[in-house]
Amino acid sequence: MVEDTIAAIATALGESSIAVVRVSGEQAVDTVAKVFKSKQDLRQASTHTVHYGWIIDPESGAVLDEVLVTVMKAPRSFTAEDVVEISTHGGIVAVKSVLEVVLRHGARMAEPGEFTKRAFLNGRIDLAQAEAVIDLIRSKSDRAFQVARRQSEGALSKQIIPMRQQLIELLAHVEVNIDYPEHDVADVTAGVIRENCGAVLNQVKELLKRADEGKILREGIVTVIVGRPNAGKSSLLNALARENKAIVTDIPGTTRDIVEESISLSGIPLRLLDTAGIRETSDTVERIGVERSHGALNEADLILLVLNNNEPLHEDERKLLNQLKDRSTIVVVNKIDLPRQLDITEVQKDYPPDRIVYLSAKEGKGIEELENAVSSMFLSGDVESGDLTYVSNARHIALLHQAKASLEDAITASSAQIPIDLIQIDIAATWDTLGGILGDAAGDSLLDQIFSQFCLGK
Ligand code: GDP
Ligand code: ZN
Fold first, then answer.
1. Global pTM exceeds 0.80
2. How far is the CA of 232 from the centre of ligand 1 (A)?
3. Distance in Å, CA 213 to ligand 2 centroid
4. Hey, which family's this protein in (predicted)?
5. DSSP states of 95-152 as a string?
6. Which of 252, 296, 301, 375 is least surrounded by CB atoms within 10 angstroms?
7. Which residues are annotated as a binding site?
8. Is the separation of the CB atoms in 342 and 311 below 8 Å?
9. Are 238 and 246 in contact, with CB atoms under 8 Å apart?
10. What span, in angstroms and rounded, lies between the C-alpha atoms of 434 and 169?
11. Do 456 and 8 contact (CB within 8 A), yes or no?
12. How confident is the model at residue 387 (pLDDT cuts 50, 70, 90)?
């Protein structure tokens, strides 16, 4: 158990109808009782009860706010310590003055993530769950939120634990054969190693395969909007974002910088990048923008290639169509409110109908069709109904890659007559690595790094 008592504002700062000051630790109830005025003495309160009253400044006697105080006694609380939550009126002033008076009466200011860190240290959650809390706070869309929530409930841990169990049993089996070599079962053992390591390896690979999808859900699909100057890229970005972040102008080539916008499109997070028009250019400033947009194209998960319905296909566009046809590209034929000059049949040669969308960014027409095309491209149904266990965390992914490598080493070695006690090292290493996802034997610096990513009050 951690000895001192910590406090922080647990809700987002800014306009809201209520705000919460969270206090955790052995002195939590005592500390709040010193500054809380109500009919009942908080020290007598039983666990999981709510109390109405006022927070006062005992020194001046001033009433700071009318509040509800919730008492949750150890171990049935978020941190597994005594926790008191004070719900104050919203707005910065009330909640800050309440926090201040709590800090003056026995609590210290919590570091970012310290509540979750205590939950971990007190054994209430494992490390994968703690990290999921970070993702939960940060997740930008409903779907990413669901994934993070599933993980915080331990979905990933539930998959890792039996994998480690299988490895431990294998190690035990190998151990027996090292201790009793006269049984001469080395060949049998090699087969058992291949079988068991192979089974765990398949699960690791499956988790890694879905990691990409997890990354997309958490960070957003990197969506690059390309096209010639004046095709309507910035207008499209604005229509999608429904706010004017990119500058729209009539002079060709004025959007020189990449403008970024995060949006949620029927639950799918997109990171939209508006690029400078792609075309051969001699103007230096514009060329920088153009080069940057080529770079952005390489990184893109999704490409929106904007063509102008009102102009014949340009040579640059022909090149782009060809260059991007094997990528996740949707052709956006923009300006359908203007007469058609574009030869659509040329586009149709390389792109099936569900990858061509007709719209008017200016009039906001056809945006829904684009949204449908994007969602059917990325979420062919199986995400919503399927298993939402995605590995969405860079540290987990790195550890899974490491586990994959040591499992492959063990399998190769077992086929190559390598002494079994050497193979055993690989298996033990895999067990360790997978344990890192759960936070077994996590060193202090790793913990600090993880928990410092939290915002205050979590
Ligand atoms: P960008 O250079 O590709 O980013 O193009 P912009 O978004 O800056 O648009 C260039 C011009 O085309 C602006 O004058 C827009 O108002 C106009 N524009 C964009 N979309 C449409 C559209 O759907 N219909 C019409 N009529 N004009 C559009
Ligand atoms: Zn633009």
1. no
2. 4
3. 30
4. Belongs to the TRAFAC class TrmE-Era-EngA-EngB-Septin-like GTPase superfamily. TrmE GTPase family.
5. HHHHHHHHHTTT-EEPPTTHHHHHHHHTTSS-HHHHHHHHHHHH--SHHHHHHHHHHH
6. 252
7. 22, 85, 124, 230-235, 249-255, 274-277, 458
8. yes
9. yes
10. 15
11. yes
12. very low
- Pocket residues for ligand 1 (CB within 6 Å)? 227, 229-235, 248-250, 255, 277, 334-335, 337-338, 360-362
The yes/no answer to whether this complex scores an ipTM above 0.95 is yes
Q: Which of 248, 275, 306 to mutate to test the pocket of ligand 1 (most atoms within 8 A of CB)?
A: 248
Q: Which ligand ends up closest to the CA of 367? A: 1
Of 335, 332, 333, give the one whose Cα is nearest residue 360: 335
Rounded CA separation 332/239 (Å): 13
The Cα-based distances of 248 to 135, 274, 291 in angstroms read 34, 11, 21
Domains in the chain, ordered, with CATH?
A: 6-126 (3.30.1360.120), 138-216+390-441 (1.20.120.430), 223-376 (3.40.50.300)
Distance CA 165, CA 160 (A): 9
To which residue do tokens 């033990």 refer?
428
